[in-house]
Amino acid sequence: DARDVAQASREEVQSIITQLNDADATVRRDAAGALRALALHADMKKLIVRCHGIGPLVDLCDGVDDDGRGAEAAARCLWNLAVDDDNKVQIAASGAVPALVAVLASKGEDRRGAREAAAGALRNLAVRPENRSLIIEGGAAPPLVALLQSADAAGSEAAARCVWNLAYESPENQAALVSCIEPLVVLCGAGAPNARGAAAGALRNLLHANASNRDAASTAGAAPVLAKLLTDPEIEDAGARKHAAALLKSMAAADPKGVAAALNCDADRVVIGLEVDRRLATKPVDTMRRSTSQKTLAAMMRRLTPKSSSSKKNVVTSK
Which of 88, 18, 9 is nearest to 52 (CA)? Predict the structure, then answer.
């Protein structure tokens, strides 16, 4: 929470930025972490940029530290700085995109956090159309696919949200990111709840007005996965369910039989649309939670039932 983070003077910010070039890796990492915290404030975001903080942060992303901790701290700071629209321009102009793509493509368990942070920073930069092109041309697609396929829940969600922005209103980027479709479908069905919602949003942008990508999603088995997501009580984000509904309606134009089979309804686009709307309007029921509640109620009733006067040896307790 930005309200809990102290702000700093220009001199203090400049001093911290100087530490980004320190000979000690721990000092560099801690300085990037301090800037990251300051960058939660809108005015601090601008001050860090005015104090020429972007260049040293990009350098820290660029492989100065072998363990990836410095790169992670720097990428997380750039992630925060890139919330500001003007900063997006300056960060990209400072050569951050190739550095962040390199972090995204880095290997090793110790760089898991760095990969997530790079995907988050690229996601924010991708809000601007000109940056989307830079990111795609910089080779982001393959490492994004790898991160989507990883067991890292936070990383796969960050990658999905990055693809979501990259594919927005860009047929060229939709084509460049076609390799993301299959892992996004898998993530929709098997990822953590937040990652599943992010994957649905990314698919919606990838498939928008793109028949080829719709076919690719159908081939990847998207219809039954999206139908399940539409009624999954674990998905608390209403927006995720809306993405699933829009995708099913869109895919029905090319594959009505496949979508109808997933929804167990007639293969007619009007019928499919009505069934999707019906499911979307119905609040998902958590059967496990209901079952647990029933067990709790039964236990309470047993406790409230008057005790029998029979001897203890005839009393049976529930295991």
Answer: 18
**Single-letter amino acid code for the residue at 2:** A
* Interval 239-295: pLDDT, tens: 999 999 999 999 999 899 999 999 999 999 999 999 999 999 998 876 555 445 555
- Confidence at residue 312, expressed as pLDDT on a 0 to 100 scale: 37
What 253-256 contacts at long range (C-beta under 8 Å, 24+ apart), as own/partner pairs, is 253/214, 254/211, 254/214, 254/215, 254/218, 255/214, 255/215, 255/218, 255/223
Mean pLDDT of the chain: 89
Cβ–Cβ under 8 Å, residues 156 and 197: no
Q: Identify which of 193, 192, 216, 194 has the alpha carbon closest to the alpha carbon of residue 203.
A: 216
State the Cα–Cα distance between residues 258 and 255, nearest whole angstrom: 5
- Residue 34, CA distances (Å) to 8, 17, 21, 31, 170 in order: 10, 10, 14, 5, 36
At 21, list the tokens.
Answer: 């070039």
Nearest to 207 by CA among 172, 240, 181: 181
Alpha-carbon distance of 164 to 199, in angstroms, equals 8
**Residue 174 neighbours by CB under 8 Å, 6+ apart:** 167, 205, 206, 208, 210, 213
Q: How many CB atoms lie within 10 A of CB 219?
A: 13
d(CA 237, CA 317): 42
Q: Which of 181, 253, 171 is nearest to 208 (CA)?
A: 171
The HSE-up count of residue 148 (CA atoms within 13 Å, CB side) is: 30
Label residue 68 by pLDDT band (50, 70, 90).
Answer: confident
